[in-house]
Design a protein that fits this description.
The structure holds two protein chains of two kinds. By secondary structure, chain A is an all-alpha fold. Chain A has helices spanning 2-21, 39-42, 50-68, 73-92, 105-108, 110-133, 139-164. Chain A has one domain. The longest helix of chain A is centred in the C-terminal third of the chain and has 26 residues, at 139-164. Chain B has two domains: 45-167 and 259-267, Thrombin, subunit H (Beta Barrel); 174-251, Rod shape-determining protein MreC, domain 2 (Thrombin, subunit H, Beta Barrel), CATH 2.40.10. Chain B is α+β, with helices and mostly antiparallel strands. In chain B, strands 1-2-5-4-3-12 form a six-stranded antiparallel β-barrel. A six-stranded antiparallel β-barrel of chain B has the order 6-7-8-11-10-9. Chain B has helices spanning 2-31, 45-61, 63-91, 95-107, 268-288; strands at residues 109-119, 128-130, 143-146, 149-157, 162-166, 174-178, 184-188, 196-203, 213-216, 228-237, 243-250, 259-265. In chain B, strand 7 (184-188) and strand 8 (196-203) form a beta hairpin. Classes of the chains: A mainly alpha, B alpha+beta.
Chain lengths: 165, 289
Amino acid sequence: MLFDILRRLMVMVVLCLAQALVLNRIQLFHCATPLLYAYFAIIFPRSYPKWAILVWCFSMGVVIDAFSNTPGVASASLTLMGALQPYLLELFLPRDVDDRVKASANTMGMGNFMSLATIMMLIYCMVFFTVNLFSFFNWLYWLECVVGSALLTLALIFTIETIRK
Amino acid sequence: MHNLLAFLTKYYHWFIFLLLEVASGVMLFRYNSYQGSVWVSSANAVVGKVYEWQSGLEQYFSLVEQNEALTRRNLILEQQLRLYKEQKADAHEDSVQSLQTMMNHLGSYRFVQAKVVSNSIDRADNLITIDRGTADGVEVDMGVACGTGVVGVVYQTSTHYSIVIPVLNKWSRISCAIRGKGYFGYVTWDGGNPVIAYVDDIPRHAKFKVGDWVETSGYSSIFPKGILIGKILEIADSPDGLSYRLKINLSTDFSRLRDVCVITEKDFADRMRLNEAARDSMALQRSRN
């Protein structure tokens, strides 16, 4: 348990620093920013306590908000991801897998994992940019942000999973 | 009762979810405007420290470039100073007296050197965090400038960090004047190109041309007179047709901002106390009426 907390804390710190110091500065075509910290919400194992996922995701969101000067935006969106993760993970797990199986390309297969990541990232980017822009006045810009950021983040997640594999 | 307890035990994570979402909502609506955004923002001590380390590292790598720029700037300034001294000596017999007046004028200001630890230029409400706070004598509403021109106005301060509203913020309004002409207006930014800003409220009878410099007017007492803001690119009518709207090219490159100066007046504290006293007495007067 303690080992799990320490490991997750380390992942959290690394993702936060990568996001705050490097990824937040990338803005392809003035809209697409990689939101790699959302990867944190995807990789919780099956039957991980739901309340713990929520608390982890919320904490991650608050730290990201503090670094990006967007109070409440990332924490609200990431908490929603934390709530949906256990249910979405069930949809993509192969049959007859262990109860404590980890969400990764290794255990689920690259296809299943990337499908899960795609759905979660699309939901995350939609919620994040809706809350961040807070209007659909410029809906085309909103759509560009959602699709652009989701694609960039998915490319990064694919790279990380390929390396881990 | 038993059913209720069973329901709560089964679905308690949804209650936690709601609670956390409400907490996020409170942060979103309460702190997402400029007001009160100081503790979940880059003025926070921990976040400020991390950004300070990063900025220190980046500065180390760009030292050569900065040294070159500073040396160049120093040379230009020395040349300008020599030219002004010569002109002054030619123009007045009592040049010592005029130099004395200039030094006295600048002497009423104090400059606090600061480093930019966090900066953005891609939003409509960009903010800059600097590594000087109330402990270094920085107060809200003080002006911030750098070697190439005006930067912004201090918006919030903590003990060791301050948040500055730069010219590149749609809420920024800095009083300005056209150099050598005296017509004054205020600088605004429309949220687009980070090198372009606009000057509004220049009167219709004003005579000036494209290429003239815009500088601080000195009326607001946040900035001394004569700090560069930018060069006029285009002259157009304001939407109501009553004044001119100038498109200017900002002299400060906000994307490469590193070293800045907070400009503090020696009698700033006295002036703020006086302002507060005036506000209090007006409030008292209103409450009596």
